[in-house]
């Protein structure tokens, strides 16, 4: 579904992408692919997503929550036209898996765990995608498109993203505690791990040159490290808790 969202994004934005230096060579923007071809590919992606959805445990509940995500998947690419905070909508969309994963295992949503986990993902997305958006801010401004990079500006971006990084760390920590891992003494590897992930986000923010495309692209790509740290922390925390 995430890849389907990327296809939808490129379909909605092809007329803008061809005027942005970094995206003008994308297949739809460059004319290498047609919208009809993209639509067929999207159909395959959605079919695969439906197959996965129907194979999950607690299929009825999963279907309801999966269907609830579709409006976000379909509309978030449009948000850069209408809101100053499209990265927030992206976060709400991309982190829906926090809800789906819990429902697939338990059949119901425990918001004491899923709420902070989902919120931490949204905060994390705001960090990496705002830095990403700074790559295109000049082209976006010319085209009349909106982003948190433009909204926060040169002076507001780092303080606001610092707060988001702290929020992501707090959400990871609360989710771990509420799902039964216990305190730091009971699951030190989990809390040390998510703290390391939070520190990585702070490094991204405070070492970022908001006017250097290569610097920003490197920090954006480094979020796969953050993901692996959080994943490893979850595995270690669960092993220690038995």
TrEMBL record:
<keyword id="KW-0808">Transferase</keyword>
<dbReference type="GO" id="GO:0016740">
    <property type="term" value="F:transferase activity"/>
</dbReference>
<keyword id="KW-0472">Membrane</keyword>
<dbReference type="InterPro" id="IPR039653">
    <property type="entry name" value="Prenyltransferase"/>
</dbReference>
<dbReference type="InterPro" id="IPR044878">
    <property type="entry name" value="UbiA_sf"/>
</dbReference>
<keyword id="KW-0812">Transmembrane</keyword>
<keyword id="KW-1133">Transmembrane helix</keyword>
<comment type="similarity">
    <text>Belongs to the UbiA prenyltransferase family.</text>
</comment>
<comment type="pathway">
    <text>Secondary metabolite biosynthesis.</text>
</comment>
<protein>
    <submittedName>
        <fullName>Uncharacterized protein</fullName>
    </submittedName>
</protein>
<dbReference type="GO" id="GO:0016020">
    <property type="term" value="C:membrane"/>
</dbReference>
<dbReference type="InterPro" id="IPR030470">
    <property type="entry name" value="UbiA_prenylTrfase_CS"/>
</dbReference>
<dbReference type="Pfam" id="PF01040">
    <property type="entry name" value="UbiA"/>
</dbReference>
<feature type="transmembrane region" description="Helical">
    <location>
        <begin position="88"/>
        <end position="109"/>
    </location>
</feature>
<dbReference type="InterPro" id="IPR000537">
    <property type="entry name" value="UbiA_prenyltransferase"/>
</dbReference>
